[in-house]
Design goal:
It is a single chain. The protein is 52% helix and 14% strand. It has 183 residues and is of the alpha/beta class. A five-stranded mixed beta sheet has the order 2-1-3-4-5, with helices on both faces.
Amino acid sequence: MKALGYGRCSTAEQATNGVSIVVQRRAVEWVAEANGWEMTWLADEGVSGAVPPESRKRFKAALALLEAGESEALIFTKVDRASRCTEDFARLLRLSEEQGWRLIVTEMGIDTRTPMGKAMAHMAVVFAELERDFIRSRTREALALRKEQGVVLGRPRATPDDVVARVLRERTEVRPRTRLPAT
């Protein structure tokens, strides 16, 4: 059997300095090897789980290979590597059923070829979406607190002060409008 392994990490820093992708790949390769499957590895590095799966370059490539029948399974370590949105994951499950390929989640022992595996995949994505909402809430609260403390949020301005002053000055100057001659 041919399988596709898929990994994802949310930030560019995780992709370059972290071990997340390496750990995910090892776990997926172990499952493929234990089952005697030939595996191709694809990963989206520096891409948030909030981004719909169909909008990620490597995930989109995986879906195309699955649709073409070049692979019989999509393997990833955790549901949130594929999606943190119940709607997106439900579409992915429907797509796998319609096209006849399996979804396998290594850390949870989920394999959608069984009714229990399919049900557990749905439950797992509910909790992945819940975690995404918790992360958003914690981030919002932390940023609000930092703002209350007087911390200037956002990226520092890169435009020099003299350039900003010149733009503002020129913007407020009244200039006569030049009309082009009619042709």
